[in-house]
Amino acid sequence: MPTRVTLIGAGEIGSAVAALVKTSGAKIERWDKDVTKVPDQRALDEVVASADVLFLCVNSWNLRAAASSIVPHLKRNTVVVSLSKGIEAATLLTVERLLEDALPKGQPFALISGPMLAEELDVGLMGAAVVATKQRRTFNVIQLLFAKTKLRLEHSTDMHGTALAGVLKNVYAISLGIVSALEMGGNAKGWFVQQITAEMAAIIKKLNRGNGDAAYGAAGLGDLVATGFSSYSSNYRVGRDLVSGRPVTAQSEGFVALPSLLRSLGSSKTRYPLLMTVKRVVVDKKNAKKEFERFVRG
Q1: Which of 156, 176, 198 is the endpoint of a domain?
Q2: What is the pLDDT of residues 116-131, one digit of tens each?
Q3: What is the distance between the alpha carbons of residues 86 and 61, in angstroms, rounded to a whole number?
Q4: DSSP labels, 137-163
Q5: Catalytic residue positions?
Q6: DSSP conformation letters of 226-247
Q7: Whole-angstrom Cα distance, residue 139 to residue 110?
Q8: How far apart are CA 232 and CA 238, in angstroms?
C-alpha cells in the first residue's frame, strides 16, 4: 500500500517537494489556504487525517497557525516534516521548539534544512539536506520518499543546532547579497564566507549547549553558499536591494528573523561584529557601503 503524503503549502518549495516525493510512488495530497493554487483540493481535515507523512511547507511566521490547524486531525503516528527556518517573534522559539509546543506530545516530527533551491530541484539538479529528528525510524521513513531523487539526505539528532543553522544562514545570506551588490570581488566573497561561518559556529555553540557543529554542515555552510549567491534567494535579493536603495518589500526569512535573533542573543550580540554590521544596515537603516567597508577595515 503506497505511503499517503500530504503537503500543506503550495508555494515554490512545496511544489518542488511534491514532485520529488511523487517519484517514490506515494499517494500525494496538497492543500493551501489559497484555493487557487490547488483548485481540486479536499478539505483540510480529510487530507490531514489520511496522511502517513505530512510536510509543512510554509513560512516560519505562518508555522504555528499551520501546526495548530492540523493538530485536531492528526493520526498519532503521522510523521510531521517542517521546512521552515525562523524564530517565532512572540516566544523566541526556534522551529523545533515551536513544533514541540504546538504538536501533540510524542508526535514524530523532523526538520529538513539544507541547500534545496526549489528552482534547481524543479529542473532535476541535485540538492542536499539534513533531516533533524531524534528518531532514526522517522529519518528512515523520510529517506524512502526521496530515495529515487537527486536530493541527498543525512540524519542528525541535533535538532536545535539544525534549526539555529537555518536561521543564521538566512540572516547572513543578506550580507552576501550586499557583498555581491557592492562588487567587492571573489576574494571578498571567500573571506566573508569564512567570517560568517566562524560567527555562525560561535552563535550556535552559545545557544546550543556548547555544540556548534551544525554551522559546518548542509543546514549551515552548505545552505549559506547556495542561497547567499543565488538570485533565486529572497535573502540574497534583500541584500542587493539594501545596496541599491530600493525599498525592501519582500518578507525574506532572514529579514524577518534578524530582530528575534538579536533578542535571543541579548547583550552577547556585540561579540559578533558581522552580525552587528548586518543589524546596522537592516534595522538601523545605515548605509550598506560605509558599514561593510568599516567591517573590512576592522
Answers
A1: 156
A2: 999 999 999 999 999 9
A3: 8
A4: HHHHHHHHHTTTSSEEEEEES-HHHHH
A5: 169
A6: HHHT-TT-HHHHHHHHHHHT--
A7: 8
A8: 11
Full-prediction pTM beyond 0.90? yes
Number of domains into which the chain is organized: 2
Which residues contribute to the annotated binding site for NAD(+)? 118
Q: Which residues are annotated as a binding site?
A: 118
Q: What is the residue range of 211's domain?
A: 165-297
148 and 186 housed in the same domain? no
Q: What is the pLDDT of residues 250-288, one digit of tens each?
A: 679 999 999 999 999 999 999 999 999 999 999 999 999
Task: Give the separation between CA 247 and CA 249, rounded to whole angstroms.
Answer: 6
Domain shared by 139 and 49, yes or no: yes
d(CA 298, CA 285): 20
Count Cβ neighbours within 10 Å for each residue of 62-88 and write b for 16 or more, e otherwise: bbbebbebbeebbeeebbbbbbbbbbb
Domain boundary among 156, 186, 212: 156
Q: How many CB atoms lie within 10 A of CB 3?
A: 17
- Contacts by residues 283-291 (CB-CB < 8 Å, ≥ 24 positions apart): 283/258, 283/259, 288/178, 288/181, 288/182, 288/242, 288/243, 289/182, 289/243
Query: What is the CATH classification number for the domain harbouring 33?
Result: 3.40.50.720
